[in-house]
Design goal:
The chain is an alpha+beta fold and 301 residues long. It folds into two domains: 24-143, Immunoglobulins (Immunoglobulin-like), CATH 2.60.40.10; 158-300, Rossmann fold, CATH 3.40.50. Helices cover 33% and strands 22% of the residues. It has seven helices and 13 strands. Strands 2, 4, 5, 8, 9 and 10 form a six-stranded mixed β-sheet that branches. Strand 11, helix 4 and strand 12 (228-235) form a beta-alpha-beta unit. It starts with a helix and ends in a 7-residue tail after the last strand. The model is unreliable at 1-20 (pLDDT under 50).
Length: 301
Amino acid sequence: MRVRILFAAGLLFAGTIAANAQSVSVDKLSCLPTEENGVVRAAAGAAAGQSLRLYFRWMGHEDFYWVVMEPEANGRFWAVPPKPEKRNEHVELYAALVDPAGKVAARSETQTVKVSSDCRVQLNVKERGVADNLTVGETSPKQQGKKVLAFLCDGIVTRVNSEGVFLGCRFAVEAMAKAGSGSIINMSSMAAIRGFPQVIAYAASKGAVRSLSLTVAAHCLRVGLPGIRCNTILPGATLTPMQQRAHEGMREGATAAEVADPRNRVGQTSDIANLVVYLSSDESRHITGQEFVVDGGYSIW
């Protein structure tokens, strides 16, 4: 019995050491550009189920906001924070490993970065894609639904993903009604049918796109516009330039079983484009109010 107890205690101790061994560090930044996006890079040993967040705020003001840091190879990550306003002279930031519930497992030291109009940062295609579609997380009830303090960002992805799609459908139906027919194809996401706690706002907004598309299709039928169809595509991970580097990092050292797992596979942009062509054509004239999941089987795995 004594041997078993010592053995169990040894495992517990080893587990404690492993947990405490996780480290997070943010690369030293000399500056962030005024009213432009910068890039923050970090290193971390993320365990299964963990993600890395970049927390940031106007120096000394209110609570931190956060954005998800994108993974690269060899334990490297990067993130694009929102554009600092002119009044914002310094930004405080740190990176933290969190579990799916948002609980912090390890974090870096806080770094204070100067904001300057003389700072020059050149974003690549993938970084620009993230910058143009930022999802900013909140850490306090006081922040909910409000503009990100001292940054040029509303912080609410639903303004684009749900309200933007609503406005697009509204004006599309008006234009198509004059022509008597048309095909509306809205892009939702696999996140709308699976739980992704790391992107709560994004998943909720894409769920709104699903419901909106069904409503638009039903509306057109009921008001005597059967020639106007509305369908939804729900892509899974797709190899766009924005996803390229992250996917390459995940593929390094992968076993055959991991490559075959649909959770580790990504689609090509042509997989989505071919479906768009079909739904735009007369060959799909009898299809409306439907959802098409293009994820290589991830959602049923």
